[in-house]
Write a structure and sequence with these properties.
The chain has 418 residues and is mostly beta strands. Helices cover 6% and strands 35% of the residues. The chain is globular. The termini are far apart.
Length: 418
């Protein structure tokens, strides 16, 4: 049949059936969206630029929905310490919008608190204050300062603050000794506190209001809560991970630490970076502790089920019965893909992803637990200024600029601030 005649018959058949013939005009369905603001469905607020359709938010959206440019998010200042005091440890009190932080002096350049020349002027600044920022997820319009009666010892130069689920929290000091600086003994380690405001910082006529303390971790660089009164710490002096179980606290201001336990893992493996906190994050489902090994520019994963008790840790200032080296503990480096990282400082686990702060470049990086790159957020902060980070109860990341005494949050939803 003649091709022209065949096309005529086909066209007549389409019209008879009520169909319009296809054309070559290039017309296509209009895009569902070209901007996030056009996506009203709360389950699909993200306008996928490739599909031009509304979709679920991308992986690691807490660091922005777009290309990682600093302008793709809003860095909102939540706390600014007076006098540029140093803010290093911070965490949210569970089931609240209260942001608790430590505020103290810088370590470099600080005057020594020596026994023969000790004075309030040289010694008191070494003890940090606690500051509570109320309504931190919204207006952050009120804060309260709390000082322990013996902050010089129990809150000495803290690198970390981390809450437990029982309304207790731990701090850990970056110092060789929590006593006079010229004392011979290395006498420092984590402190256990209660957030109960009828106790914390109140003058009860005792040795401050700490609830417990153990002294096996000089130059502590990071801390993570496990369960009950169990905490993991980064021992900067020994290049190790120390696991503490305070057991029953001894009550406010008391001194009997003897029921505690401490176990030391992978001694000599880690490396401290002075005045840079090293984040720890516990994967409770798989029993791994992720470690920002800052000085060695890597991330490690420790199997917390591994290891066997070996020799005793000495000296035993606290008269505890369990104070052992853990031999043959298993760990590995997480091989991170993409652009090489510098010195990791902040580290957290969220939704099966590793969130890092790269201290060297003041960048945020996200990886899968296998090390595959997921997202990078660049910033305009100067290199070597960012510290650590936490995930807030409002699904936003909070981070600090320690030397400037600042805490920021990352507003990631452009519909709310653009």
């Amino acid at each position: 049949m003649n091709p022209s005649l065949w096309r005529s018959f086909a066209l007549m058949a389409l019209l008879t059936l009520g169909c319009e013939p296809a054309t070559d005009s290039g017309d296509a369905a209009a895009p569902e969206c070209t901007a996030h603001a056009q996506c009203a469905d709360p389950d699909k607020p993200f306008c996928d630029p490739d599909e031009q359709a509304c979709a679920e938010r991308p992986a690691a959206y807490q660091l922005g929905w777009d290309d990682g440019d600093p302008a793709s998010v809003d860095f909102e200042l939540v706390y600014d310490a007076p006098g540029r005091r140093v803010v290093r440890g911070f965490d949210f009190r569970p089931n609240s919008d209260q942001l608790w932080l430590t505020e103290g002096q810088a370590i470099r350049g600080a005057r020594p608190c020596n026994k023969a020349t000790a004075s309030a002027e040289t010694c008191e600044p070494k003890g940090a204050d606690f500051v509570v920022v109320y309504r931190a997820t919204t207006t952050y319009d009120r804060s309260e300062r709390i000082r322990d009666g013996n902050a010089v010892h129990f809150a000495r130069n803290p690198s970390s603050l981390v809450f437990s689920e029982n309304d207790f929290f731990g701090t850990c000091p970056e110092t060789r000794t929590a006593n006079f600086d010229d004392e011979v003994e290395d006498f420092a380690g984590p402190t256990l506190w209660t957030a109960d405001r009828s106790i914390l910082g109140i003058d009860i006529g005792k040795n401050g209001t700490h609830m417990d303390m153990l002294h096996f971790t000089p130059f502590c660089m990071g801390m993570e809560h496990d369960r009950e009164n169990i905490y993991w710490t980064f021992n900067g002096q020994k290049g190790a991970i120390d696991r503490y179980d305070f057991k029953e606290d001894h009550g406010p201001g008391e001194e009997d630490h003897s029921d505690g336990e401490v176990l030391r893992y992978i001694e000599g493996v880690l490396k401290r970076e002075e005045e840079v906190s090293s984040g720890l994050a516990l994967d409770r489902e798989n029993d791994y502790l992720y470690i920002a090994d800052t000085g060695n520019e890597r991330v490690l994963r420790l199997d917390v089920r591994s290891g066997q008790r070996g020799s005793l840790l000495l000296p035993n200032f606290d008269f505890v019965q369990v104070h052992h080296q853990m031999n043959e503990a298993e760990y590995e480096e997480v091989e991170l893909g993409g652009e090489p990282i510098g010195k990791p400082s902040g580290l957290l686990l969220h939704d099966g992803l590793i969130y890092l702060i790269d201290y060297s470049y003041s960048e945020f990086r996200v990886f899968t637990v296998d090390g595959d790159p997921v997202r990078t957020l660049y910033t305009d902060f100067p290199p070597e200024t960012l510290g650590t980070l936490v995930m807030g109860p409002d699904d936003r990341i909070y981070f600090n600029v320690p030397a400037r005494g600042e805490i920021y949050r990352i507003n990631h939803d452009p519909r709310q601030w653009q």
